[in-house]
Every structure is written in structure tokens, then in C-alpha cells.
Amino acid sequence: MLKIEQLVDRCFHASGVSKSIEPLRGDASARRYYRVSLDEAKTGGVPTLIVMALPQDPMKSDEVIGGDVPVELPFVDVGRHLEAAGIRVPKIYLDATEDGALLLEDLGKTHLVDMVSGANGDVLQSWYEAAVELLATLHSRMDPIPPTSVAARREFDASLLRWELDHYREWGIEACHGVVLSDSVRRNLDKAFDAFADELAHLQKGFVHRDYQSRNLMVTGPTPSSSHLAIIDFQDAFLGPRIYDLVALLNDSYVDLPAQLKTHIVRYYANLRCLDVEALLAEFHLVTVQRKLKDGGRFIFIDRVKQNPAFLKFVEKSFARVREGLAATAEHDALKDALAAADPTRFQR
Predict the structure, then answer these.
(1) Would you tell me how many other CB atoms lie within 10 Å of the CB of residue 280?
(2) Which parts of the chain sit beneath pLDDT 70?
(3) Domain-located, residue 113
(4) One domain for residues 167 and 287
């Protein structure tokens, strides 16, 4: 059993450092989090910290990653490289991986989602411009990904993209609707998914956080600014489509953004990185389809397999984002027809 008090005492080379321990809201991860209030007289003025309690197999991701099993906890590995690149991430006070925990800097209780939920247009735009400024800096400074990082040895390749599409088919269609697809419908869907995954795998690649969204950006200052944002939950980072993090940010499950703001932010990012705007917009719509198909199926999987129904309310919103992406995507008739045949209640043409 995890002995948080003992780890905190070890961290600060004192006894009786912990004053209270508060479990934090869980998510879809196997990790658990606690906020520990501290005796500042014994910590040199540190008032609180966060304990990340690791699962039984801490080197195994909650997501399918690919690549070799890492020798160092990916959160520690990726965080070290991000910090070296000047990106704000939580400091690690104590790496106690062997004891099942990390002791981390407490970045506060305010996430980006808290600042933008219900915000007016100007405030919403300002915070998302700040978030994408940070993202552009992140991508620029991590290009190329340091070869010693685990993120450089894991790739969002065609097989992983394809697996995620199958994850949608298994849980978003078959489990959700209680159906078994006919042989002909399944063949057409597989053929369309094979081609789609191959197309996405050939998009230009770069560093991908994998879940760069409003719950994984901590607000550390009072005004919209990239310097007032910090990044968490980066342990699944890898090499993938350069647009992926922007899709995760603008089409996350927790904030509904106007279409014109999404387009503005994609253009803003393209200008910050001197990229072709129209090419980036086309990639944005394509990757939206893949990401949100996966999300919709994943949320059902989390309910059925992990007995966590908290994400079910985002299932149909995810598929609505797929429809938006399909509508904005030129051609791809085979994919649209295959989805309509396999999941007609959601994707009828």
C-alpha cells in the first residue's frame, strides 16, 4: 500500500511533513492523484504538492503506444526534455517510481477549461490564442524530438492509426449498437480504414503530446498568455501527424468552440510556424475524423471495460465532430460510404 506520508517525509528529509491528504478527481487513467498540504516550516515554503500514484505496471500506457517498453517512466523522460526546452511542466520533487509514486509540483486548481467554459467571444479567443502560442513554441522547440527521449522512439504510424479505427468499430458500433457487421459491410469498412490510416500516416510529422486539451493545460496566471499556461499529462507523447495536437485542442470533448474560431486558431498557428494555411486546414479536418472516431469508441470502452461511465456524455458529441470533419473533407467518398453503411444512425449520407 502506498505510504504517502513516508514518501513526503523522505522528499523533504524531515518527519511529520504532511498535514492533510486530499484525493483528486479521477479521469480515464489508471493513475491516481492526491493533493498533500505541507508544513511549510519543514519544506522551505512549499505549501502543497501533488502525488501521482502509479498503476501496478507503470511502464504500460493506458493508451496503445507501440514501440519497445521504456526503461524510464515516460512522464519523467518526456517531462525532462520539455523542461530543457523551456516548456512549463510540473517539477518533480521525488521520483519514487520503485515505490509506486511521483511527488510533483502543485500547479494549482485551475485548468484552461475553467477559464473558457461560458466565456464570451473575446475571452475565449484570447485564451485559445495563448494555448496555441504555447503549442507552436512546444512544437518548434521539440523539432526534432531529442533522440534520447522515449517520444522519438514511438510513432503514430499506420498500424496504430488503424488500431484506433478498429477500436471505434468494436466499441462505437458493435458494442454500442449490439450488432455484428455483415461480411460485405465489414470488408468495405476495413478497406476504407486501411486507406485512411495509410493516408494519415503519410502526413507531415512532428512531436505530438497526444492529449493537448483544456483539461491538460493548467492556468498559472490571471490573464490569457502562453506564459500563464503549463502542460500536464504528456507521458504518451510520440512522433505523429503535426496537426494532431491542434485537433485535440480545438475539438476536445469538454469545450464547444464556434467553427469560425477553430478556423481562426488553425490559421493563427499556421502563421506562427510559417506553414501553409490551406494544407493545414485540410489536415485538420482529416485528423478530426480519425481522432473523434477513436474518442467516441474509447469512451464506450472506458464505461464497459473500466466501469467508468463519466465519459458517456461525450460520446455523441465526439461523433458530431466526426460529421463536421467529414463535411469539410473533400472526396473520401469510400470512407463516407463505408461509415454510412456500418453506422447509419450517425453517418447517414
Answers:
(1) 18
(2) 1, 59, 61-68
(3) no
(4) yes
In the chain, the number of structural domains is 2
Q: For residue 283, how far is the Cα from the chain centroid?
A: 18
Amino acid at 290: Q
Q: What is the DSSP string of 100-113?
A: TEEEEE---S-BHH
Task: Cis check for the bond before 144: say yes or no (omega within 30 of 0).
Answer: yes
Range of the domain at 146: 120-347
* DSSP-derived 3-state class of residue 116: helix
Q: Locate cell 478556423: which residue?
A: 263
H-only helix segments in the chain = 4-12, 40-43, 74-84, 112-116, 121-141, 158-167, 176-177, 183-201, 244-250, 259-272, 277-306, 315-327, 333-342, 344-347
Residue 115 lies in a domain: no
User: Are 146 and 250 found together in one domain?
Assistant: yes
Angstrom CA distances, 133 to 79, 150, 160, stand at: 19, 25, 28
% of residues, the chain, pLDDT over 90: 92
DSSP secondary structure string, 293-343? HHHHHHHHHHHHHH--GGGGGGHHHHHHHHHHHHHTS-S-HHHHHHHHHHS
Nearest residue to 232 (alpha-carbon basis) of 29, 20, 11, 41: 29
Number of other CB atoms surrounding residue 60 within 10 Å? 12
pLDDT of residue 66: 66
pLDDT single digits (tens) 154-176: 999 999 999 999 999 999 999 99
d(Cα 331, Cα 317) in Å, to the nearest integer?
24
CA 254 vs CA 62, 100, 116, 216, 338: distances in Å: 20, 30, 10, 11, 28
Q: Say whether both 150 and 254 belong to one domain.
A: yes
Q: Is residue 196 domain-shared with residue 318, that is, in the same domain?
A: yes
Strand partners, 230: 218
| Separation CA 159–CA 139 (nearest Å) | 24
Q: How many CA atoms lie within 13 A of 186 on its CB side?
A: 10
Nearest Cα to 283, choosing from 298, 270, 264?
270
